[in-house]
Structure prediction request, 477 residues.
Amino acid sequence: MTWKNTADAVIVGGGIQGCSIAYHLAKFGMKNVVVLEKNTVCSGSTGRCGAGIRAQWGTEMNCRFGLASLEKFEQLHEELGMDCGLHQGGYLMVAYKESEFEQLKKNIALQNKLGIKSRVVTYDEAREICPGLSADDAVGFTYHNRDGHADPFLTTFAYQEAAKRLGVIFHKFTECMDVKVENGEVKGVSTNRGDIYAPVVVNAAGGYSQEVAKMAGVDIPNFSERHEIIITEPVEKGVCPPMLMSFSGNYYIQQRPHGSIIGGCSPEGHPEDYTCGNSWQFLEKMSKTITKLLPRTKGIRVVRQWSGLYNMTPDRQPILCEADNVKGFYLSVGYSGHGFMFGPISGELLAQKILGQEPRISIEPLHYKRFERGELIIEPAVV
Amino acid sequence: MSNKQDDIIICRCEEVTLGEIREWIAKGYDTFDELKRVLRVGMGPCQGRGCRDIILREIAKMTGKPYAEIPPGRFRPPAKPVKLGAIAKAGEAE
Prediction:
């Protein structure tokens, strides 16, 4: 790829955020958009994620984002010209404590008010939705049939390919080393392959967002933590049609449309970490969880385990804004494990903001200044 | 002749053909890990034991880089597929 040292916008990070922002900027008419990716597109947190998409959230902001993103996923194949592996088997939330069930019911009331048709279901209904489910110790369930799964690789590549057709340039193996700022305005970036001058720089660096923010002199409270996942060989459909998710049970498990079963949980103690290793402890714990919930999976083989980084914020909601002290430096970071599912909508909203338009869902509450002001919007519904 | 070659299945676990692999290398997906992510080559039960070398040679041919310089891609545990039930039981006392 030929190197041009000027651009209208440089995006740091080739995950779902970077690719969606690039696509939407080009779609809305911006000409010279460049995406920098230090490895290859979709090699970081997006490509390592659990692939779930949902509107069952506990805050108004996340419900609005979740629903708007689902609507975009539902027509993404048509818009981008590539199948994104969408499968809407629903999310079945499982509560093991009364207090947790009360919270889920509060979430449902909020979701219903915002047009999300989620509902409380009985154990019998839960077992119709997920045949073979064994959850005698659960106290309640909620379900939303439009939630489900999309393929993180295909979705991100679909955005990349559509963006390329609109003229966006992608540089892989290109690492942002510094963000140039003069008199409170962003001027461009330095990379391992040379400089690029641009009036707009977007931090979409996922697990490394706090490092890229620091280069621009912007202080954000984000940190990254390692989450592990396993996946099985593909088996016949119907073993786990919905995403089974529990906050107290600490798991999410779903069968992909391809047939393999994917499962993950939160690490104990939530350690800050940049390394993406694998542990035997996780493999054992997750295998116990899956076989207890779905006893008929005992004979299904695990083929792979890996890990990825959640880029966390103090209230587990993203930062989506322009920096207050550096004009032209934008952030789309800190999705706390939900960057993939929000990517289609957050990319559109930030592109609108960059182009001086009014985002169709207000992103004002997602400025990082909320942490200083103490205006946190704490999300209760996170694994 | 090349059309016939394109129909050859290279990744037997995920049934990916040489034609598909060539198509995506031509689009710039010229590392094993990128092809794995877009086509699922090497993601099946054999973990790429069958297809990896053939794909690396194809990348070398199409990019003009020496075979030895093509990164082999990431290997992930477990080395061989293991039943969920066997792992779940492994932590318990006999």
Chain A touches chain B at residues 40-43, 47, 153-154, 157, 161, 232-234, 258, 278, 283-284, 287-288, 290-292, 297-306 (CB under 8 Å). Chain A has two domains: 9-47+153-222+315-373, 87-147+223-312. The longest helix of chain A spans residues 98-113.
